[in-house]
Amino acid sequence: MRFDLVSIFPQFFDVLDLSLMGKAKDSGAVQIVAHDLRDWTQDRHRTVDDSPYGGGAGMVMRADIWGRALDEILQIREENAAGDSSLDSSAGVSGSEDNPRAARRVLAVPTPSGKPLTQRDVESLCAADQIAVACGRYEGIDQRVVDYYAGTPGVEVFEYSIGDYVLNGGEVAAIVLVEAVARLLDGFMSNPKSLDEESFEGNVLEYPSYTRPLEWRGLEVPDVLMGGNHAQIESWRRGKSLAKTARVRPDLIDQTNPQTLSLEDREVLARSGWIAPLDGAAWQRVTIRPAIATEAYEIAQVAAATFPDACPAYVTEQAQAEHIANNLSSEVVASWLEDPNFRVLVAVIDGRIEAYTLVIMYEDGDYPSDIPPDQIEPAPTYISKLYVTKKWRGSGLAGGIFEAAIEDAKPLVKGTEFVLGTAKENKRARRFYRRHGFVTSGKRVFMVGDIRNVDVVMTRAV
C-alpha cells in the first residue's frame, strides 16, 4: 500500500514516523510519501492560490497546480490528460501480473462537505494499491480538480469528512485516513486479533477496558472481569458494547438486521430502547420505566391477557378467572402503585403497554407468604410478576424489562438475594431464569383459584 500525501505543509506528516506507523514504514508494510504542492508551481513566489471567481472571502487553490502534481503522483500520462485513457503503472503501484494497469488508485479529498468517513469505507480502501490525499487549505481546492479526476479512467475519487466541523486544512483528516487504513493491512498490527474486538466491528462500539490498580479514586474494576469465567466476561463485554452503541450511536443499531442478533443481544438492546418482533426485520423504540397511577387499568388488562399463558394445562379457565379477579384487577394494581415497597415497571411500544414487572421489597423478618422461610434468606426482594404480550415474546423484551426491574430495585433492597417462583412444568420460564443467573432453592405451593400448584423457588444473589 502506498500513500501520497500532498500539502503545502508536508512537515505536518512527520507524526507518521512514530509508533506502529513508523515501524510499518521501516518494514515496508506501507509506503508513505509526503509531497510539497509548491514543488509544482512555476512562479518565483511559489503561489498555489488565487481569488475566487464570483467574489467572496478567502482564496481558492488553483486547479492547474494541483493537476500537475496529481498527474505526476498518480502517474497519469500527458496523453491521458488530453483524453487518452492509458495509465503509467511504473511508480511502484501495481495490479495483477496479467494486468499491471488494473491497480486501484484512489484520490482522497478531505472536505467538510464530503461523506462521513466510516469503518466500512476504511475496510474498502484497504484494497487500494495507492491512495493520494489532496490536502486543501484556504477556501478549498478548485472544484474542477475533483470533477476532472472523477472522470479520469483508473482513478477513484473519494471526498470524505471526519466530522461536522471545519479545520484549517486537510492534513489532520489525511493522517486519520492513513492510520485508519494502514492498521488494517496485513503485518501492521503485532496482534491481529485485537482488530476483531474494536469499535464498529459488527456495527457495535468497543467494550470498556480496565487494568491496574483494582481501585482508583473510589472506582473499582467490575467483579465479572476478576472471576476468570471467560464466557461470563465475553457476555458482559458484548452487553456493554451493545448498550453503549444504543446510547451513543443509535444509527448503527438501526443499520443492524435484528435477525442476525442472538436473544441475549436483543435483551440488552430492549433494555436500551430498541426492539423488534421475533420475526421482524425493522427496529422499533421501546421505553422501560416505572408505571404511573393512571396506568393501573391498562396494566390489569395486560395481566388478565397474559396470566393464563403461564398456567399449566390442568388449571381450569374458571380457576384462572377467579385468580385474575382476586389478584390482578385494576383496583389491586392501583394498590401496588400506591405502596412504596412495590415497584412496577412497564414496557411501552407505540403508546401501548406490552410488558410489566412487579417487584416487592421485604423488611428483615418478613417473607412472601407463599414461600417457606427456610428456602430463602431474610428480607428477600421478591420478583412477583414478569409478563409480556404474545406479539413480543421471543423478542428480548422479557429479558430487557426483567434486568431493568432488578436494577431498579437494587437501591431499595434490604436483604442479599432476589427470589421468585415459577411453575415446575414451565420449562421455558425456568430456562429463562437460569440464563439470568437464578438457581433453584426449593419449592412452594401456589394456589390458582382452588387449584393447587407446585412451583420451583429460584434465587439470585443481589
Output the number of helix runs. Answer: 14
Q: Can you name the CATH architecture of the largest domain? A: 3-Layer(aba) Sandwich
**Class from secondary-structure proportions:** alpha/beta
Count up the domains. Answer: 2
What level of helicity do the residues show?
25-40%
Strand content: 15-25%
Give the strand tally: 17
Task: Assign the CATH topology of the largest domain.
Answer: Aminopeptidase
| CATH homolog superfamily of the largest domain | Gcn5-related N-acetyltransferase (GNAT)
Gyration radius over CA: 32 Å
For this entry, what is the oligomeric state of its chains?
single chain
Average residue-wise pLDDT: 92
Distance between the termini: 54 Å
Query: What strand order characterises the main sheet?
Result: 10-11-12-13-14-15-17-16
Give the CATH class of the largest domain. Alpha Beta
Low-confidence stretches: 81-101
Notes on the structure:
This protein has 462 residues and is of the alpha/beta class. The chain has two domains: 2-76 and 103-195, 3-Layer(aba) Sandwich (Alpha/beta knot), CATH 3.40.1280; 285-461, Aminopeptidase, CATH 3.40.630. Helix content is 30%, strand content 23%. It is built from 14 helices and 17 strands. It has helices at 19-27, 63-73, 78-81, 119-125, 143-150, 171-182, 230-248, 250-254, 263-271, 296-306, 317-327, 330-338, 397-409, 427-435, and strands spanning 2-7, 31-36, 49-50, 60-61, 105-116, 130-134, 155-161, 215-216, 219-220, 274-275, 284-290, 342-349, 352-361, 381-388, 417-423, 439-448, 451-461. Strands 10-11-12-13-14-15-17-16 form an eight-stranded mixed beta sheet, with helices on both faces. Helix 7 (230-248) crosses helix 9, helix 9 crosses helix 13 (397-409) and helix 10 (296-306) crosses helix 12 (330-338). The chain is elongated, with a radius of gyration of 32 Å. The two termini are 54 Å apart. Residues 81-101 have low confidence and may be disordered.
